[in-house]
Amino acid sequence: SGYHKVLEENRKLYNQVQDLKGSIRVYCRVRPFLPGQSSPSTVGSIDEGNITIVTPSKSGKEGRKTFSFNKVFGPSATQDEVFLDTQPLIRSVLDGYNVCIFAYGQTGSGKTYTMSGPKNMTEQTQGVNYRALGDLFKLAEQRKGTLIYDIAVQMIEIYNEQVRDLLVNDGLNKRLEIRNNSQNGFNVPDASLVRVASTMDVMELMNVGQKNRAVGATALNDRSSRSHSCLTVHVQGRDLTSGTILRGCMHLVDLAGSERVDKSEVTGERLKEAQHINKSLSALGDVIASLAQKNAHVPYRNSKLTQLLQDSLGGQAKTLMFVHISPESDAVGETISTLKFAERVSTVELGAARLNK
Ligand code: ADP
Questions:
Q1: Does the C-beta of 32 come closer than 6 Å to ligand 1?
Q2: Which of 82, 202, 210, 312 could be 98's S-S partner, Cβ–Cβ 3.0 to 4.6 Å?
């Protein structure tokens, strides 16, 4: 069929696709010091996939801990470099794979920078979201003679275990249901679905999403660090020769801050938020751990986040986690616990996992 011809023509892409199937990859990224920061870095050394963290100890003697991942990006890594290592995964969506990319780390460690970009973004500092869609448009255009693609996006937020639409004006006031439908990949069928054909379309939509989210923030003070936001890209390709339809779906998730909250110090709304975040991040860890152990039962149902990502974790899906750390020494406690969580995730081979859907 035309689809196979495309793959044949691009042997390298095909091999990369095979290589990534059913696996979880973990990339660690270290944020640079921000202007005005000057404490010594907790990062002792970076050597390909290994990162060594220097931990101060009370007796004055330093401790060292090394963690291993598929890749470690140091503070000077550019958005270009980061994207280059993400591209093969993203491209496989056009071949009908489900992909999930998420950004994990404490608030301020650079999750939004990686996924979207900084506030005053230039072309150079655009994050994975923009680059991913730009790349999909480009590749779809190249395949135009053999396959016709339809690309549409949804943008939702999960806040206090409630799913909300970020692409409509009053979206934060309406709760949406998650209904797993592995046949067409629409897990939140009632969220706005918008067809996109250019990077400009995507820019506009992201602005709408960010604006809608900011409205919630005035009432609840920096809502974005306490909610998960998810850009879902639905791709449908029709093979012009055989008429076969390929469906792929990609979730790009900016997770809520992973910092532990001292329960003795917060109450009310803030405590509720912390408990929900805790619950969903640990549910994510449990799902991945249980896939790793090939358990018959995978506890997807334990949080909205894992329900949403169900089709993109395990089986043939490809998952990439960007784990972010801050270099400051006063963040070392969070840094170590972030890296421990990530290491638990990274040893995983999902290919043979039995799924309980
Ligand atoms: P988070 O989403 O984890 O809360 P942000 O992405 O908002 O963190 O990053 C916190 C601050 O650090 C922002 O001002 C951001 O622009 C900056 N920053 C993060 N990562 C980088 C980086 N790799 N290079 C330059 N600045 C960065």
A1: yes
A2: 312
Q: What CATH code is carried by the domain that includes residue 327?
A: 3.40.850.10
136 within some domain? yes
Provide the number of structural domains found in the chain: 1
| Ligand 1 within 6 A of CB of 109 | yes
Is 355 domain-assigned? no
Query: What average pLDDT does the segment 328-353 reach?
Result: 77
Q: Looking at this predicted complex, what is its ipTM?
A: 0.99
Digit-coded pLDDT (tens) for 11-35: 655 565 555 555 688 999 999 999 9
Q: How far is the CA of 350 from the centre of ligand 1 (A)?
A: 31
Cα separation, 296 vs 310, in Å, equals 15
pTM of the predicted model as reported, rounded to 2 decimal places = 0.89
Calculate the alpha carbon distances from 59 to 63, 178, 340 in Å.
10, 51, 24
pLDDT reported for residue 182: 61
Token output for 40: 């010594």
- Domain assignment of residue 37, given as a range: 2-346
Residue to mutate, 79, 113, 122, ligand 1, most ligand atoms under 8 Å from C-beta:
113
